[in-house]
């Protein structure tokens, strides 16, 4: 049972990574609100399937709230990222991550204090403060920044995108590399998509690829993740609705 819990936990992490990449416009000053649904397939020794929903809402004060909700049998996950656009830069304000697998829960909150360049991390009731640098992102807004950078200029194979992220009480470097392009089939049509590889370094056998469709304003259309033990997880765009069109 512990092996099954670990595999479901990996799936939940994959859902967060992939769906956090779903944004809607090449101009950061003109983000479009949306709702989207993804289907998922994975192997935990048995074949399982699930769904995930994503929404981006603009508040009356001009800030944005991105929410992800994913479920798969005995697992559920909700993640939210509230951010503002400051000088055409994504500036996260509040991040929340809640996960339940069987009877185990995890609750993480990150509050950004930009005047003092610090964040307060709270996990499972314990809190601590860490220093950050300008343009530090949270685990969802980093993928927004990547999507916007891809949309800003044509993708060139081998190009690397690197960001600083407040993650797990540490300031971590997230790196992504342009790895080519493929035609991806979705219920919405076939789209030539830019393939991005997450660079986790040479010491890990875990691999993740993300496909962005320029014809859909660089929306993510597919995610594939391979674990060190050979297990494979996949997410596919199923529905996409623009709310402010």
Describe what you observe in this structure.
This protein is mainly β and 245 residues long. It has a single domain (2-242), classed as Beta Barrel (YmcC-like fold), CATH 2.40.360. It has helices spanning 2-19, 141-152, and strands spanning 34-43, 47-58, 64-72, 75-86, 89-101, 104-113, 118-123, 126-131, 160-167, 170-186, 189-199, 207-213, 219-226, 232-242. The chain has a 14-stranded antiparallel sheet with strand order 8-7-6-5-4-3-2-1-14-13-12-11-10-9, with helices on one face. Strand 11 (189-199) and strand 12 (207-213) form a beta hairpin. Residues 18-27 have low confidence and may be disordered.
Summarize the amount of helix as a percent range. Answer: 10-25%
Order of helices and strands: HEEEEEEEEHEEEEEE
* Total E-strand runs: 14
**Unreliable runs:** 18-27
Oligomeric state of shown chains: single chain
For the sheet with most strands, the description reads: 14 strands, antiparallel
Number of domains: 1
What's the pLDDT, averaged over the residues? 84
Structural class: mainly beta
Radius of gyration over C-alpha positions, nearest whole angstrom = 17 Å
Tell me the strand percentage band: over 45%
Number of helices: 2
CATH topology value: YmcC-like fold
CATH architecture annotation: Beta Barrel
Which term fits the overall shape? globular
CATH class: Mainly Beta
Widest beta sheet: strand line-up: 8-7-6-5-4-3-2-1-14-13-12-11-10-9
Distance between the termini: 46 Å
């Amino acid at each position: 049972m512990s092996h099954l819990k670990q595999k479901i936990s990996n799936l939940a992490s994959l859902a967060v990574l992939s769906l956090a990449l779903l944004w809607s416009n090449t101009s950061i000053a003109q983000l479009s609100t949306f709702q989207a649904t993804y289907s998922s397939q994975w192997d935990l020794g048995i074949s399982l399937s699930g769904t995930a929903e994503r929404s981006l809402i603009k508040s009356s004060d001009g800030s944005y709230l991105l929410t992800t909700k994913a479920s798969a049998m005995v697992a559920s996950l909700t993640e939210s990222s509230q951010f503002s656009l400051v000088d055409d830069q994504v500036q996260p304000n509040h991040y929340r991550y809640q996960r339940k697998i069987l009877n185990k829960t995890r609750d993480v909150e990150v509050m950004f204090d930009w005047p003092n360049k610090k964040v307060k991390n709270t996990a499972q009731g314990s809190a601590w403060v860490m220093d950050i640098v300008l343009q530090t992102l949270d685990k969802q807004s980093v993928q927004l920044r990547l999507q916007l950078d891809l949309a800003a200029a044509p993708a060139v194979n081998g190009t690397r995108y690197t960001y600083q992220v407040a993650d797990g009480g540490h300031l971590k470097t997230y790196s992504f590399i342009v790895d080519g392009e493929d035609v991806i089939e979705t219920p919405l049509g076939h789209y030539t998509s830019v393939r991005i590889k997450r660079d986790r370094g040479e010491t890990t056998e875990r691999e993740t690829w993300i496909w962005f469709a320029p014809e859909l304003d660089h929306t993510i259309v597919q995610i594939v993740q391979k674990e060190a033990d050979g297990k494979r997880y996949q997410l596919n765009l199923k529905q996409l609705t623009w709310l402010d069109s």
